[in-house]
Amino acid sequence: MDGAGELRAALRVAAAALNAAGVESPRADAELLAGHLLGQDRGRLAVTALMGAPVPAGYGELVAARASRIPLQHLTGGAPFRSLSLAVGPGVFVPRPETELVAQAAIDEARAVLAAGREPLVVDACTGSGAIAAAVATEVPGAVVHAIELHEAAHAYAAKNLAGTGARLHLGDALTALEELAGTVDVLVSNPPYVPPREHADPEVQLHDPDTALYGGGADGMDFPRALALRAAQLLRTGGLFVMEHDETQENAVLALFGAVAAAGAWAEATVLPDLAGRPRFVVARRS
Questions:
Q1: In whole angstroms, what is the distance from residue 154 CA to residue 162 CA?
Q2: I want to staple 130 with a disulfide (CB 3.0 to 4.6 A). Which of 72, 161, 220, 241 is the partner?
Q3: Over the stretch 265-280, which tens digit does the pLDDT of each residue have?
Q4: Residue 54 region, left (φ>0) first, then alpha (ψ -120 to 50), else beta?
Q5: Predicted confidence (pLDDT) per residue in 79-92, tens digit
Q6: Which residues are known binding-site members for substrate?
Q7: Domain-wise residue ranges, the chain
Q8: Is the pTM of this model over 0.85?
Q9: Binding site feature residues for S-adenosyl-L-methionine
Q10: Binding site: residue ranges?
Q11: Angle (CA) 283 95 277, round 5°
């Protein structure tokens, strides 16, 4: 597939191979891999292919690796997130489009605090690649953003992605870090481990995303989210906002969690919001 013949034909062959391997978006992935090698986006690549360009060196190897279900982002070394391009690879969770809405909720709240004349203090717990923290720091320049990550491999990617954003990265446990900020945080946002203990059907997730970023513990995957909600109540100021992603099957468990904590006086309100596909995906809760 490399070096000889036309790129247009190679793209068809690659898309067929990826489709046979069960890749969800075979044509797009075939084009993105070729574009990665040529330094072109998909629009420019289409023109290049129509002009009879040759197949770039290494294309066959990349297509074979993708057919083995190595994540596309591991092969290209990057993942889009809102307006950002993030460095990702083995050892770090690849950010998903659904999490962009979680980031948006944190950004909206930080902007509201800024509009009220205060400097927003935002904490991204379990930052992983640093996606949410980087989005908040770049889209709300007046915010003070802290990001916490426990695992060294993910922390290294977060350091790359947060460089130059002004966000402050901490290597530590989200359930104990930043004690000095207790009672002062305006927004605590997180895409924590929450997946229930079931075998994931997607090989890219099952084989390549780190388990520590996926599974939340307990029969329902809610052990860590429950602990994080308690930590959020400690760090947030009165009126501060907690934004947390969760599994689509956990809506009732999440509402029950915040209902129980609200009864103890910690939360004034909690609302589950949908992702891009309309599935219940994240909760926003106001500190009372």
A1: 12
A2: 161
A3: 788 888 999 998 999 9
A4: beta
A5: 999 999 999 999 99
A6: 191-194
A7: 7-68, 93-287
A8: yes
A9: 149, 191
A10: 149, 191-194
A11: 55
